[in-house]
Amino acid sequence: MKASIRRTSLLVVAVILLTLPTFAQTIKVAAAANLQSIITILQKDFKQKTNIDIDPIVGSSGKLVAQIKNGAPFDVFLSADMSFPEVLYKDGFATLAPVVYANGNLIICSVKNIGFENWERTLLTPRIKKIAIANPTIAPYGLAAQKLLKKKGILDNVKSKMVYGESISQVNTYITTGVVDVGFTTQALVKDPVNKTLLFWKLIDPKTYAPIQQGIVVLKHGGTNPDAEKFYRYILSADAKRIFEEYGYSVQ
Predict the structure, then answer these.
(1) Which residues does the chain have with pLDDT short of 50?
(2) CA distances (Å), 15 to each of 2, 6, 48, 170, in order?
(3) Domains contained in the chain, CATH given
């Protein structure tokens, strides 16, 4: 009798489990710090289209790569460059070779109207005491800014004025709070409607620095999450590209 009841109970449980709706997994997305404002917009649009949630973790590209290599369970990586995702793919942490999803644009920016017609000369003047860039070893926008200053021939002259942020988002805080006189950052800062700070800025000629090609990869952990590929395809879609363009990125 007891054995019969036990078998019946197991059968009922099995039927319940089989008839339960299948719920989508949350996609864990490692996103470069320059995407801090736009990732929430992409998140909402993707959710509206697919009813799938993403859990964005924002940080400098270099630090996110270190976390991925140390076992962080991210499904998709949106980098601020191509070199970091290429390393992950080469080392076996990504399922497919990375592709470019957007190109970043570098700007020089300040809460002060310091004049940007000849910004190279302005940075050399005594009134500019602090210049913010992201840490060039872990943040691609910082590396682009450093190479730009070197190409302009003024890097050595302004090194004593440099203030390094751990990520581009920290640089943005330095700029918008007036902690620094000026900083190099992404155009997304001035395109973000959430930012209410009056900013003076100039778009740096893209020909004066290496293209900031931002790459996406589905990580090895994402291979167990079928929705990761859906988010990957969404980021490369026309709808996502329109959002990137609205926030100051260039897309193909």
Answers:
(1) 1-6, 8-22
(2) 20, 14, 32, 52
(3) 8-103+212-246 (3.40.190.10), 106-203 (3.40.190.10)
